[in-house]
Design brief:
This protein has 447 residues and is of the alpha+beta class. Helices cover 56% and strands 7% of the residues.
Length: 447
């Protein structure tokens, strides 16, 4: 790694304001991520890598300055950009021009061979760094008349940036918007990718194989498939299998930590259980109620939140409306535990995908009887389980009517956009099960 890309967690940027004067803004790396790891992500546009590289270089030279003076400009030759973002040199020039159009980054091009381009940030760049909602992003597009061909790159810049204004440069509303933005699955996955971008697939497999006892039969099959692919193309995996490998690695990490927590607290748990058993001042019914209340207040294992559980139940209800699917009317402790175990086994994204796939199924052909949620999740890891059958049903049945296809699309749109009160990103974080249950019950009419 070049010394100009050493990890810098916070610094000051200087930009040219709309009045033509220089102004400053303090920025920080999102969640302390190593910014240089974001320059070359396989599934992300080169504009994202170059933008993050420009910001990183400005932050580096600001911190390197003896008086920590914010940099007005940085020099960046195209041949160096090419290596940093892993694109050919001619493509680097196209990416530079796209950043000029989208973010009004001022570029003075080098005219001599091997000369360096000069980059300055603008008022538009400053405004972009403060956008964390789709509505404001659309306002930005309209305000600066971003062309249709540049909008996709802009949306990637929006999702895959790695810096934000410091806390002192964000008011209460902007702070709320940022933490809501951080719930976005694309951004969370990208930040995780940046944390471990320098870890090879082979290194991940070595870590996983030390704990193969934790894996399910399905995960072992997936791992075997990934190892076969790595023999064909060492060090490289297709996007789907790369994320599948990361998912298995995260499962191992979670399971290890969970076992440590359980073993470390076993004494205290047994003591608590014993104190409940020997309480002779309560009737059997009172004791049972006490145990249920205690269970409801137990903290769930780290990694799966009450929010995740409510999102799954909400999407099930949305997809079940008007179909032969049994809706979830109440989130009981048992129901929440069942969803928790389902997400633990398959991951939330796979569970949501399976629920979405129910919309691909034809009533007469696939849904001849009522689909109850308990049947849907029963023995879900078995290859012939109803869950796995639905998960594989990725294409809409040709027997679905145009009205049914439209209904399916509308339901998915309702859950994955911010316009609905029960949309994925509008489900709040819950500190307790009681609050999760209350929110779910109060929003049943919206599902």
């Amino acid at each position: 790694m070049s010394t100009a890309y050493q990890p810098i967690e916070k610094s000051t940027l200087k930009y040219v304001s709309s009045e033509g004067t220089y102004k400053k803004v303090k920025v920080v790396a999102i969640q302390g991520v190593n910014i240089p790891n974001s320059f070359n992500i396989p599934y992300v546009r080169g504009a994202v890598g170059l933008f993050n590289a420009i910001i990183s270089r400005m932050m580096y030279f600001t911190e390197k300055d003896s008086k920590k003076r914010a940099q007005e400009k940085i020099y960046f030759p195209a041949w160096q950009i090419s290596k940093v973002i892993n694109r050919c040199e001619s493509q680097s020039y196209n990416i530079i021009r796209s950043l000029e159009r989208i973010l009004d980054i001022h570029v003075t091009r080098a005219h001599e061979k091997a000369g360096a381009n000069v980059f300055r940030l603008s008022q538009r760049t400053y405004e972009f760094l403060h956008i964390f909602t789709p509505e404001k992003l659309n306002d930005f597009i309209r305000k600066y008349k971003i062309s249709r061909e540049d909008q996709y790159a802009l949306k990637q810049l929006y999702n895959y940036r790695v810096i934000r204004p410091s806390d002192g440069n964000m008011n209460q509303q902007l702070t709320h918007e940022f933490y809501t933005f951080m719930k976005n699955r694309k951004h969370k996955d990208f930040i995780h990718f940046c944390y471990q971008n320098n870890v090879t697939p082979e290194a991940r497999i070595v870590e996983i194989e030390a704990y193969t006892d934790f894996l399910t039969d399905k995960q072992k099959e997936q791992l075997t498939k990934i190892k076969q692919l790595l023999k064909e193309t060492p060090g490289k995996l297709k996007h789907y299998f790369h994320w599948l490998l990361i998912k298995i690695q995260q499962f191992i990490t979670f399971t290890k930590d969970k076992d440590k927590i359980i073993s470390g607290k076993s004494d205290s748990k047994s003591a608590a259980n014993q104190s409940q058993v020997i309480d002779r001042n309560k009737t059997e019914g009172e004791q049972r109620k006490t145990n249920e209340v205690a269970l409801a207040h137990k903290k769930d294992p780290e990694g799966i939140t009450h929010q995740d559980i409510v999102q799954v139940a909400t999407f099930w209800n949305i997809m079940s409306k008007g179909r032969v699917m049994d809706p979830i009317n109440t989130l009981t402790n048992h129901k929440m535990e069942s969803i928790h175990n389902l997400v633990k086994s398959h991951g939330k994204e796979e569970v949501l995908q399976a629920i979405a796939n129910t919309g691909n199924m034809n009533h007469a052909e696939h849904m001849v009887s009522l689909i109850q949620f308990k049947d849907f999740i029963h023995d879900s890891e078995h290859p012939s389980s109803r869950f796995n059958k639905v998960l594989k049903h990725t294409e809409p049945s040709p027997k679905l009517s145009a009205e049914e296809n439209q209904s399916r699309s509308n339901k998915k749109h309702m859950f994955y956009t911010l316009s609905s009160p029960v949309a994925h990103d509008n489900v709040p974080n819950f500190k307790t099960k009681a609050k999760a249950k209350a929110w779910f019950k109060s929003n049943l009419d919206h599902m």
